[in-house]
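User: Hey, my collaborator sent me this sequence without any context and asked if I could get a structure. I don't really work with proteins. Can you help?
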Amino acid sequence: MTHDVIVALAVLGIVGQVLAAALLLVGALALVGVRGPLRLLRSGVEGYELWLAFVVAAIATGGSLFFSEIAHFVPCELCWYQRICMYPLSVVTLLAALFDDPRAARYLLPLPVVGAGVSVYHLLVENRVVGESNTCSISAPGGCGVKWINEFGYLTIPTLALTAFALAFAFLLMASFDPVATVRTDER
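Assistant: No problem. I've predicted the 3D structure and written it out in structure-token form, which is a compact way to encode the shape of the chain:
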């Protein structure tokens, strides 16, 4: 069962990476003046941005709890820092979505940014690009460089976390801006 859940989370990670790449492409096109895909995206998710951020954060939180509580993977120090950024997102995005308060998204944006930074650093440690600190080596068996999972040849826990942080950031960013004001600005 554990392996099946890990594969399911890895497949969700790949779906998330494809979605993140598509969102990045839409954003890049908007920056160079091609705003049609952005308008289509905004009209398709309008009003659901916080719910989408919540779903991403909830799956990431559930996955992290699965890894430590069911699969018994011991979280290292860097995993804990990523959790510190992800866990509040799952609670606060739910509250913001329930109360339809997109203003909260602006205050939440630093969490996925910091979490993504920690994830990138964790990937560098895991792939031996940078050395791990002494606290890493005492925080978990094998330290922060242990790849507890390695699905499809590249999907590790920090890769999944980075994917979740990127998606959460994208959805929170969309929730932060009023689509009506964005359309008016585009029409000028």
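In plain terms: DSSP finds nine helices and no strands in the chain. You can pass these tokens on to your collaborator as they are.
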